[in-house]
Design goal:
CATH topology: Rossmann fold
Shape: globular
Strand order of the largest sheet: 6-3-2-9-12-15-1-16
Number of helices: 16
Radius of gyration: 19 Å
CATH superfamily: LarA, N-terminal domain
Strand content: 15-25%
Structural class: alpha/beta
CATH architecture: 3-Layer(aba) Sandwich
Oligomer: single chain
């Protein structure tokens, strides 16, 4: 039987402030009130924008964000952390949209946030943190991707986790019964903020299958946590979901929003074919699980519409994924460890029911949500909304 709605988990901090009954009532009504009905499902909001129309994209980001949350959790002067996905220095959609982050900073300032910090630690191919040294720079990759200039112009701060050194992390314990053997080493900056906004991208991933909201947690982790993640690869996908059970994320993460007017539809995470649909989407929800169900459906949908073959070797090859994961293990540790690493099995992309990350997330993050999908502007085609809604009903596992 499905567990309780996921939003009951993500609202944990609000309930601690306002009382359990009030928090549950607020979560069960949110979204349904906006559409004139009360729903017991988990709302996910879509905003559309015509291809290349920057002003429409900005409006869509604002509309989706303000539909997904009323920002009542934000008190004047609160510090807020925005977590993008910046595996490399490549431009959007290989990385999170700088435009979307800039709009979010503007919204948070309007709502009373005083200090807004945008941070990440890039992939081991580009940044390597060890006990005695750092190679590469997330900050320089932020500059290369265009994120840094946008954040600074909007009045935000930049933060690169590796700049705090090996001791700039603290230990979190994942959920009981998880596949993790060690603790999750999380960056100290998260202790300095009251709220987290997660802003992933919608893209294919050579190892994971897809890079969405749940996968973004990897960017928080210190090198030793990333090593266990990649080395013990038979449970790679399950550990992705379990990494989101860190208490800091459960208590502080308020909103997940993806600008998906561009989608990295093949290979990933740093290279592949970009699909830019005639009508792009912004996807927002308070639930990372519900968000990812729709984001994955959108990725699958865009791949179906691409006017070129989707079955190239590097996009679908299990062999390439397994070899690539061993290379990552070698970079994180040494080649002997890489040779003895467990075998990775890449997620398929036929349906969201294939996704092992989501299937594990249902079990550790509050149950399988019943999606209530709502368009917040007139640019989301009704037929597309129906297809995504239908795709978001996963088969029982």
């Amino acid at each position: 039987m499905p567990g309780p709605p996921v939003q009951q988990v993500t609202a944990k901090a609000d309930r601690g402030l306002a009382g359990a009954s009030a928090g549950k009532k607020q979560e069960s009504l949110r979204g349904g009130q906006r559409s004139g009905r009360v729903s017991s499902g988990t709302p996910v909001f879509l905003a559309g924008a015509n291809r290349g129309n920057t002003e429409q994209i900005k409006s869509a980001i604002r509309e989706a964000a303000e539909a997904a949350t009323d920002f009542s959790w934000l008190s004047r002067g609160d510090p807020v952390f925005i977590k993008p996905v910046l595996n490399s220095g490549n431009p959007y959609p290989d990385t999170t949209s700088p435009l979307a982050v800039g709009v979010m900073i503007e919204i948070l300032k309007e709502k009373g946030a005083e200090r807004i910090i945008v941070g990440d630690m890039s992939g081991v191919e580009h940044v390597r943190l060890s006990k005695d040294r750092v190679r590469g720079s997330t900050r320089s990759l932020m500059e290369a991707s265009g994120l840094a200039a946008t954040v600074l112009a909007a009045g935000g701060e930049l933060h690169a986790f590796e700049e705090g050194g090996w001791d700039g992390f603290y230990a979190e314990t994942p959920t009981a019964g998880s596949n993790w053997q060690g603790e999750l080493m999380m960056p100290n900056i998260l202790r300095e903020v009251e709220h987290i906004i997660l802003m992933p991208r919608c893209g294919r991933h050579v190892l994971a299958g897809a890079s969405l909201g749940l996968k973004a947690a990897v960017g928080y982790w210190r090198t030793d946590t990333r090593l266990e993640y990649h080395r013990d690869a038979s449970t790679f996908h399950e550990k992705t979901a379990e990494g989101n059970t860190a208490a800091t994320l459960l208590n502080k993460q308020r909103l997940v929003l993806t600008a998906a007017d561009k989608v990295l539809a093949t290979f990933g995470p740093d290279d592949g074919r970009v699909c830019q649909p005639d009508v792009g989407l912004v996807i927002a929800s308070e639930s990372v699980v519900a968000h990812d169900m729709i984001s994955l459906a959108w990725l699958i949908e865009t791949r179906r519409e691409m006017p070129f073959p989707r079955d190239s070797f590097r996009d679908k090859s299990q062999l390439l994924a397994r070899l690539a994961n061993r290379v990552v293990v070698g970079l994180l540790s040494n080649w002997k460890t890489a040779l003895n690493a467990e075998t990775l099995t890449k997620n398929g992309l036929r349906s969201i029911g294939d996704d092992r990350v989501l299937n594990r997330a249902y079990r550790v993050l509050g149950g399988k949500p019943e999606i209530v999908l709502e368009a917040v502007n007139d640019l989301v085609p009704e037929e597309l909304q129906r297809r995504l809604s239908k795709m978001s009903v996963p088969s029982e596992r």
